[in-house]
């Protein structure tokens, strides 16, 4: 490990233990499709594991899908909605619909506007990916898509299994990012896509402190999956941009995966 990586690792460990982890959601209910059709997407900033309040999103900087290496801008398809968390007031969020036609892997990516976190007086920008497949034909779910920072899946992100593991590689400016803390959560509620809301009911346990892991010298991390559902990884402060409007910026990489019982 390089010296800089060791210092980063030491700094990262002091970041854990925040009572509630923020996670940018880029959610669609079904990530393994058999037939063509319109899929709904929800872009919400919240606290999925604690299942509490949502937070206002500004207008996203970018929203697109990559299919077989071809990028399609989806910003024009965004609709502004109010999204209700289990607690608090509904917040500004976005929904979209996308028509899936051909077989293969679809990598959706969102660069949200930086969010001012008043409690810490820093901006947070969680650059987020969700991958889905149609027709059981893999076409590049493991390819990086050129985001400033991103988690590249080393296991098929739309098909992982409880009792198995998931490995991701964190990139910053296209290079492996060592010694970065990644927080891990699952969506601990039902997601009401028609009603733009998370359920009031919380479905499963919430560990007493944030689940976290540190990337190794190749930017890799591995997580053993303890229960089915939609799991998210947020590698904190991984991105190249460190400042926004004169304040500290935490540019995080987020990836969502789906885990099922085999
Ligand atoms: Cu928060």
Counted up, domains total 1
Largest sheet: 12 strands, mixed
What's the SSE pattern? Answer: HEEEEEEEEEEEEEEEEEEEEEE
How many strands? 22
User: Runs with pLDDT <50, length 5+?
Assistant: 1-18
Given the C-alpha coordinates, what overall shape results?
globular
Mean pLDDT across residues: 93
Instruction: Tell me what portion of residues adopts beta-strand conformation.
Output: over 45%
In terms of structural class, how would the helical and strand content be classed?
mainly beta
Organism: Thiohalocapsa halophila
Pfam families: DUF4198
Keywords: Signal
Protein name: Nickel transporter
Name a few traits of the molecule.
262 residues, mainly beta, Immunoglobulin-like, four-stranded antiparallel sheet, 1 helix, 22 strands, 4% helix, 48% strand, globular, disordered N terminus, binds copper (II) ion
């Amino acid at each position: 490990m390089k010296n800089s990586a060791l210092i980063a690792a030491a700094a990262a460990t002091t970041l854990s233990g925040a009572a509630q982890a923020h996670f940018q959601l880029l959610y669609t209910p079904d990530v393994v499709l058999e037939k063509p059709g319109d899929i709904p997407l929800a872009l919400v900033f919240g606290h999925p594991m604690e299942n509490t309040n949502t937070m206002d999103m500004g207008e996203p900087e970018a929203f697109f899908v990559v299919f077989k290496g071809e990028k399609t801008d989806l910003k024009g398809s965004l609709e502004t909605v109010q999204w209700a968390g289990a607690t608090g007031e509904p917040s500004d969020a976005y929904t979209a619909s996308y028509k899936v036609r051909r077989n293969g892997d679809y990598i959706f990516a969102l660069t949200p506007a930086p969010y001012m976190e008043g409690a810490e007086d820093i901006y947070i920008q969680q650059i987020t990916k969700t991958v889905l497949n149609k027709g059981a034909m893999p076409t590049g779910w493991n390819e990086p898509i050129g985001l400033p920072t991103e988690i590249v899946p080393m296991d098929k992100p739309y098909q992982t299994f409880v009792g198995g593991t998931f490995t991701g590689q964190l990139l910053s400016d296209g290079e492996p990012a060592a010694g970065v803390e990644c927080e891990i959560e699952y969506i601990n509620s039902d997601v009401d896509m028609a009603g733009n809301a998370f359920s009031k009911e919380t479905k499963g346990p919430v560990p007493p402190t944030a689940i976290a892991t540190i990337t190794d010298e190749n930017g890799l991390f591995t997580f053993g999956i303890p229960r089915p559902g939609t799991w998210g990884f947020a590698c904190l402060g991984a991105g190249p941009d460190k400042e926004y409007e004169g304040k500290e910026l935490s540019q995080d990489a987020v990836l969502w995966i789906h885990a099922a019982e085999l």
